[in-house]
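Exercise (ungraded).
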Amino acid sequence: MILTLLPALPFLSILLGAFVLMLLSHKKSISLESFNVTALFFLTLALFFELITFGLHSGDYLYPSIFKNFFIFDEFAAIFDVMFLIGTIFTLLVNSDYLKSRNYFSGEYFALLLFSLFGMLMLSHAHELLTAFIALEIASLSVYALVGYHKSKKVSSEAMMKYMVLGSLAGVFFILGTALIYALVGSTTLESIALYLHNAEEKDITLLVVGGSFLMVTILFKIGAVPFHSWVVDVYHGAPYPITMYMASTFKIAIFAIALRLYLVDFATINSFWLEMLQIVTILTLIGGSFLAISQTLVKRMLAGSSIVHSGYLLIGLSSIGLGSDIAAPAIMFYLIAYFLSAVGSFGILSFIASQSRRQMSYDDFKGFANRRPYMALMMTIFMLSLAGFPSTIGFLGKFYIFSAAIESGQILLAGLGIFTAFVSVYYYFKLIAMMYFYESQTDKQKSFPLNVSTLSIALIALLVIWGGIGTSLLSFIPGADGFIDLAKQAINSL
Amino acid sequence: MLNIIVTLPFLSSLLIALIYLGNTNAKRFVLYTSLGIGSLVIITTLSLMSLYDMMQGAATIHTKLFEWIHLGDFQIEVAFMADRLSIIMISFITFIGTLIHIYAAGYMKDDAGYGKFFSYFNLFMGSMLLLVLADNPIMMFVGWELVGLSSYLLIGFYHQDAANIKAANKAFMLNRVGDFGFIMGLSILFISLEGHGFSFDAIKANIALIDYQTLTLIGLLLFVGAMGKSAQIPLYVWLPDAMAGPTPVSALIHAATMVTAGVYMVARFSFLYIQIPDIGLFIASIGAFSALFAAIIASYQSDIKKILAYSTMSQLGYMFIAVGLESYSSGIFHVFTHAFFKALLFMGAGAVIIAMHHEQNIFKMGALRGELKLTYITMFIATLAISGIPPFAGFFSKDAILVTAFASGHYAIWTIGTLTAGLTAFYMFRMLFSVFHARKSKAQRVLHPLPKCMTYPLIILAIGSTFAGFVGVNGAYGGENFIAHFLQLPDISVHLSHSSEYMLALLNVSLALFGMTLAYKLYGHRAKEAQPDTLFKKVIINKFYIDALYETLFMKPLLSLSRFIATTVDMKIFDGFLNYSILFYRVLAGQFIRLQNGKVRAYALYFLLGVSAMSLFLIYKLGVNL
């Protein structure tokens, strides 16, 4: 009995945690810290279950007697689960300081976060299109609510409305695509779609290609690819810092979980149909994103714009998959981790600053930051270097793998454009570094480094960024981040 | 064992540095001293133990710390090797290094940067040991560079004075010039070996793969590196300026470490150099000229440390004569004996300088013999040793070199060497007599007291300077030339009858005695500083205007080129290009961002436009007929 329950335990812990938190949240006497600890407890529990069952995943379906073949258990899903869980844990840890400084947070915040995480876990395991849609909506609906969590703040509510309206519009296309595919195949499980594609001739699959393209629209919308990007900057700006961080890192990883599963396996044979389309979107995303990032004055909006550029890099990887690059899929997974660490770190520092003051952090506010908070400035520099893809940080390796994949698949032009936008990104990232170090500050009082959970987590992430950048081949006796690439390859092969 | 010998100084250096950085103002004399000297005592013990084992016939030791770089078939290991050559080197390096450390504890006692000094000092020792014990030329190069770095740090130790920084920079840059040659040589060697391994053993085994011309080029380029490190013409100008550092640093650089690296390198590559005797002859000629040139300049200097610096350069010249003429073991023998008496001379000079409250001009001292009795006696022994008076150490090693030069038929080199030997005795005793014998220049003076840890090492070194020569006594004097047999280097064999050897030795000794007598006559009673009154003297006192020549030839054109690049090429061309392209990009971005107007209906419109474009593309791609 318990053995058959084992693979579902991570889900159940998260779901249970979400319910517990929701039930508790009406009690105003419970402090935010207790909620935070409770949420972390369930997350850690889920992570624990996930890790002990890690090797057991062998491509079985979850309770086929109940769910048929809607949910699959393979190493690919497991590795994404671990990433979501760790991502959410970091999001909570890094923001524990910020939560205390704002009065609008309450217990429901944690419940919603866990519900959204539950949706993501479902999404990575989904092996059927409608299930995937439901999982995506579970995750998205919670995130909509979280974006507008600061009810009294106009910009927050506005962001939520924009996101929800546009997100529903995007969701429609997923349903439409599913319907078209169902019309042709007569089933929505990925298994039967793959089987159909295997046997069908080219002229029979028109509906499938159109349906697949509509699925792609939703995915492109969620990761903020141009021209479906316009919500990103406004929503990232309006959302509270923890949610911005969560969307930019963990949620984006979740979207790639389903995208990789769809395009790597099930639509693998017809990838070539939308190759040009994908390439054009990639080009638009890279250039448009850097346009958006370069013209911002608020650091949070700059990071939002730059997250579009990073989606562009991930799209380079996606189109390399279509051209048969072996390294592309692991490269995407590595890039997701690299971006996750750098984004959580940089948003974490912003939220730390925001927890000390109520200002919107613009570039000018960072003048002389290095004098006031030398350690924070150092860590921010590390994150900026990593985002820009500077050697000796994990961001460099991420870009390196992506570009290798692009070159391996013959997309020299895309790789060149990627390198060009990386140059441009140096402008808006290093501008922040220059502000911190080379400009006088208005108040030159040096503050000490506060030792608490938030700052220590940020410091840990900064170390991870460096470790991921140099611990690979330079010092061969230290286990390196490239070990992850092997793990990712193995996971991809499990599909 | 070798791993410990190499890593321990680095670790203690790091530890001292961390403790020092923790609080730079704290006085932790005992802690720094025990860490800095303790680690050296341990490695000295280990080195001497290894030496003893090897004297009992133990084989070459190979150890591997870890693999550094691994790319396909190519790998670089952080590995160490101790054969007979390197074991001799590390034995006296660690032994004399330890004595210098003990001495430095007294010399630097009141310095605010005491911890920093010991951190650098240990780093220096570690670097030198890495250089000597390296198993492959790449690790040797790492040590080679680290020696350059730590000497830079130490020469510029009194960084409050801009002149010292300049001296440190000069040393570093000139070393870089040499290092460039060295790395070029190594690279060509590496390419020529075509992947047959790059440890010293592998190179030695495959040396036949390389043709003569390439070998010549490699040998020459490697020697350029040696010129820089070991201060030979034309890359010697940093050595006198390096006296800006504290005196223990000078002692360490000149006696046990750094400058001997070039000689060691040539001996290490002896299997390569015996293939190319032409380059050997070139090395020997450079050595001979450097020896004479430095001796001439030294005869007119008045700064005690500069005299010693030039004497080092001169003695290094001898060593290069030896290794150039393929008499590697007599070169290493001279390195060995020189380490003792040169360390002693520097430490004695340091004692004198401290006693005279940081006065370095020998003509402002005088008559110190009564007051600094111990320093006087030990320095006298060292001076006898460096002048080649038997039975002191320098006699045997210098004699071996000159005999080789004579017996192998290089009479010009031999003549220069012999002349220099006489000159050496002159300028060294000029210094000694001026400092200790001549009438004192000031009537009243109070000498600064010397701590015990600054005087006891002098005694040990004096014993060494007296007896170190006996390990290499050759057949003519009834010895067996123990050191040459032990080293097993591919020496040239020369034959000279005992009577000719006696004649040569007699000539040397009488020249040395003549120099000594002349020095006593001129400086024994009333020492006067040399005045640049004739053209000849003026040229020599200004060191043949070599520094000025280098400045006009290299520095000025380079500076103006740099200035041109900084003000014109960089500011106008590169920055201008960048600024304009950024401007262009920002203008475009300004247009693009107007789309971002904050209205959901506009956003939905973009979305639908995107979907429409996709649909059109699909219609085209799928070839649907509408």
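Further reading is listed at the end of the chapter. For now, observe: Residues 325-541 of chain B form one domain. The mean pLDDT of chain B is 86.
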